[in-house]
Hints:
- The structure holds two protein chains of two kinds.
- Helix content of chain A is 0%, strand content 53%.
- Chain A is built from no helices and eleven strands.
- Chain A has strands at 5-7, 10-13, 19-24, 31-38, 42-50, 53-57, 64-68, 74-78, 87-94, 103-104, 108-112.
- In chain A, strands 2, 4, 5, 6, 9, 10 and 11 form a seven-stranded mixed sheet that branches. A four-stranded antiparallel sheet of chain A has the order 1-3-8-7, with no helix packed on it.
- The termini of chain A are far apart.
- Helix content of chain B is 0%, strand content 53%.
- Chain B contains no helices and twelve strands.
- In chain B, strand 8 (64-68) and strand 9 (73-78) form a beta hairpin.
- By secondary structure, chain B is mainly β.
- In chain B, strands 2, 5, 6, 10, 11 and 12 form a six-stranded mixed sheet that branches.
Amino acid sequence: KAGVTQTPRYLIKTRGQQVTLSCSPISGHRSVSWYQQTPGQGLQFLFEYFSETQRNKGNFPGRFSGRQFSNSRSEMNVSTLELGDSALYLCASSGTEGYNEQFFGPGTRLTVL
Amino acid sequence: AQSVTQLDSQVPVFEEAPVELRCNYSSSVSVYLFWYVQYPNQGLQLLLKYLSGSTLVKGINGFEAEFNKSQTSFHLRKPSVHISDTAEYFCAFDDPSGAQKLVFGQGTRLTINP
C-alpha cells in the first residue's frame, strides 16, 4: 500500500499571499488530520476531516481552513500568510474501524518571506 | 488542561548504551498513548502505542515503553542504542473517543555518539 503523500514538499511564499497544500491518504482511509510543526510551538493539531466533514478543529485563526473530497484527499489553505506561518505541515490519515493509529506523510515545508 | 511533558529536550548517549526518554501526561480522562520518531526531513513514524492491556508495550526497532497510570507516565526505553537511532522522539496522547486529535510533547532529541 502506498503511504500518505503530500504535495508540494517545499513551498516559498511572501507575506499576504495564500497557499494550498494537498494530502492524499492511504487507500481506504477516510480520516485525514493536519498538524503544524514549528520549533517554538512544536506539533499542534489544526483540524481533522472524516467523510468530507470537519470533525475536530484546533486553536488556529480562521485564516487556516481545509476541506476533504469524496475520494478522501484533503487540502488545507492558509490565507494572508504571515511570517509565523512558516512551518512543516504534516498530514496524517487513519482507518475507520475502532481506534486507528495515524499514519503521517513526509510533510510540506512552507517558508514565508 | 490536557498536556504532555517530555522532561528532556536533548539526550546524548554513547552507542550501545541504554537510554530512557521520559514522558508525563496530564489528562482528566483515560487516554491512548504513543511514541513517534522523526528522522531529519521526514514525517512521523509510530514506534509503539498503548491502548489497553499490558502496561509494558513493545515497539519497532527494539524500543519499549511502560505505562504507569499512578504516575501518569509513559517512558520510552531501549537497552542498547545504535547510531541510526539518532532522531527526534515525540510522546503523544489521544482521546479514546476517536477524536484523532493527537496532543504532542515538545520532543526529545536523541543523539548517539560513537
